[in-house]
Amino acid sequence: MASRETAFVEITPEVLLKAYACGIFPMAESADDPALYWIEPEKRGIIPLDTFHVPSRLARTVRTTPFTVVCDRDFPAVIAGCAAPGPKRARTWINARIRQLYGALFTIGHCHTVEVYDGAALVGGLYGISLGRAFFGESMFHVARDASKIALVHLVGRLRASGYLLLDSQFLTDHLKSFGAVELPRGRYHRMLAAALKDEAGADAFAPPAWPGTKALEEAQTD
Question: What is the Cα Rg of the chain in Å?
């Protein structure tokens, strides 16, 4: 982690993309702290795309949900949802600089969202960075049961369908373990990252139309 003295060095969207390509990402201590810190964990969480697991109850929910799942419709609303405190998250690391930087990356096509709607209401979603054939998951949120999990299934389906090789979750959590997430030593992670950055994924990974849950499940799982 960088010191506070170096945390105020100017960070542009281009610098941010170069950092991701080196396996580094920024975080803030809190929403009120203007500083950013470069993070490079000793061990890195990833969700292997070839062994992604959807628990049976969630699979039924994804298949039958009345929610509509779309991509890249409302980035400001998604990052605001991710930044909002919740019952299990009293603090957030998403500060004003994070919002500005990732908004700029969204504008130039390197940041994407998966958004879950109940009618016109946004009830869950996630966002992350796309670079080469790697996707770096940043944050997710939900205000309706399973909405963020539904978003994750749709994300994996779209990544697999478009030839992505790496889904980086930054850290390993018990929640992500249920989907098959694992933790890798830094060296192995960097080798996977280098392979994923050699060429580009399909350009239409996050393009319309909205996918039904059945298609998301079919694309997300090997069998």
Answer: 17
pTM of the model: 0.93
Cα 100 to Cα 107: distance, rounded to the nearest angstrom: 11
**How far apart are alpha carbons 113 and 74 in whole angstroms?**
8
Q: What is the pLDDT of residue 14?
A: 95
């969480």: which residue's tokens? 45
Rounded Cα–Cα distance for residues 116 and 103 (Å): 19
The residue ranges of DSSP E strands in 3-110, in sequence order, are: 25-27, 37-39, 43-46, 68-71
List, for residues 22-76, the tens digit of each pLDDT value: 999 999 888 888 889 999 999 999 999 999 999 999 999 999 999 999 999 999 9
Give the single-character DSSP code of 36: -
CA dihedral 104, 110, 115, 120 (to 10 degrees): 50
Unique residue bearing structure tokens 């991710």: 82
Q: Which two tokens stand for residue 194?
A: 């280098």
Q: Which two tokens stand for residue 64?
A: 């039958």
